[in-house]
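Researcher: I need the complex structure. Ligand is cytidine-5'-diphosphate. Inputs:
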Amino acid sequence: METPELIKDGKRLDGRALDGLRPIRIMAGVLKEAEGSAFVEWGGNKVICGIYGPRECIPKHDASPYKSLLKCRYTMSPFASLEEHGRSGPNRRSTEISKVIREAFDSVVMSGEFPKTQIDIYVDVLQAEGGTRIAAIAAAAVALANAGIPMKDMISGVAVGKIGGQLAVDLGKAEDNLGESDMPIAFTHRGKEIVFLQMDGKLTPEELSRNIDAAMEASDKVYALQAEALRKSYDSEGGQELEM
Ligand code: CDP
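Model: Output:
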């Protein structure tokens, strides 16, 4: 199969500019039974997150007398993409993504306030189109806030990278798979600290630095949508009807 040209006349396959984000929609408080929840539609990605806890730590011997244990389970549904169809359950990729998402939130959740408990972050990818781990982080941050879990700062991110020789923001699936580099990154909003960073492919140190700047700017836009979703959920007393 011939590789499609990822950039033509300065535009990307879906017509976006190099620094353009895909359309993003975020809703908070969409699940009745979870303590906090969020739904994120990000381009062709659809991700839902439910939070449970702080609740009793199981198994009990894992419990810490000093803090709550943060746990994360990211899964991709068997119908999330053509590649996934017919399969489900944990695999190497989902185990890795669950771990790195948990580590990102470990740096902001004030777990010291809830000793001997655990907090569960469940993220299900219903539909995938590149950048699901970043959409999952956006959803988890909103869902944790919706659950009333205290956090030192909000987390927002985006996948940046290099496609057709140029740096680009918010890579879609073809760009992620066929481009030269893919770099999902997430920051704390106020502190502007990097709490999540992964990279595939090659970038020069100068490109890396430019990508970080572009990602920070894009993440601020994602933050504005997260904050707006939370504001709307307060107006509707914590819950919103899920519109998919
Ligand atoms: O989703 P994200 O970009 O965070 O992770 P990735 O492993 O770089 O995957 C890029 C994209 O490839 C995903 O968003 C999916 O669209 C697709 N993919 C898939 O459909 N099934 C997989 N097992 C892995 C990737």
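Model: Summary of the prediction. The mean pLDDT is 94.
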